[in-house]
Amino acid sequence: HIISGSDDKTVKVWGALTGSCVRTLEGHGDVVRSVCTSPDGSHIISGSDDKTVKVWDALTGSCVRTLEGHGDCVWSVCTSPVGSHIISGSADKTVKVWDALTGSCVRTLEGHGGDVLSVCTSPDGSHIISGSDDWTVKVWDQLSGDVFERMKQWHRRKPFVTIVDWLNRLDDPPALPVVSALTSGVIITKKIAQFI
């Protein structure tokens, strides 16, 4: 299946082979900015301009949980590799880590000077990566909430960092991961040599 979020305030589930809409998830009060699925595919997570993150049952389409706590729109959502946590980035300049089972906010990461437009995790879930319109990428320690590495102004025009990802390259040992960011249509990568 393919999942999409829209400015019509809905999340849609599409048949990947047929292209037909299988299910429409309704409940958000504003534009849906980001969607992802849990690692086992049992749940769909969505972030919206209504300042909430919603967790949906992928089979029934019912809203299982609404996560509230952001002070502005939610730009990006993702899950930890094992699905125990949900991570969200918001226009309130924070990254929040939520317990996927209880829906409680377990940590708020503060330090960006602008909207957090994108979030992702390292493959082992130990680190969270965030990209912001403050022109920076931050790598956070998931347990302590400390900023492990900060990458600033990779481009002369100081573009927004709209997408971040953690690259698993076969030619890199685990101690040398690569973070990738999309800025003004340019993909920039940086090896984190001091990763622990």
What does this protein look like?
The chain is mostly beta strands and 196 residues long. It has strands at 2-5, 10-14, 21-26, 32-37, 43-48, 52-57, 63-68, 74-79, 85-90, 94-99, 105-110, 116-121, 127-132, 136-141, 147-152, 161-167, 178-183, 186-191. A 4-stranded antiparallel β-sheet has the order 4-5-6-7, with no helix packed on it. Strand 2 (10-14) and strand 3 form a beta hairpin. The radius of gyration is 16 Å and the shape is globular.
Write a concise keyword list for the protein shown above.
single chain, 196 residues, mainly beta, 4-stranded antiparallel beta sheet, 0% helix
SSE arrangement:
Elements: E1 2-5, E2 10-14, E3 21-26, E4 32-37, E5 43-48, E6 52-57, E7 63-68, E8 74-79, E9 85-90, E10 94-99, E11 105-110, E12 116-121, E13 127-132, E14 136-141, E15 147-152, E16 161-167, E17 178-183, E18 186-191
Antiparallel strand pairs: 1-2, 2-3, 4-5, 5-6, 6-7, 8-9, 9-10, 10-11, 12-13, 13-14, 14-15, 16-17, 17-18
Nutshell version of this structure?
This protein is mostly beta strands and 196 residues long. The protein has strands spanning 2-5, 10-14, 21-26, 32-37, 43-48, 52-57, 63-68, 74-79, 85-90, 94-99, 105-110, 116-121, 127-132, 136-141, 147-152, 161-167, 178-183, 186-191.
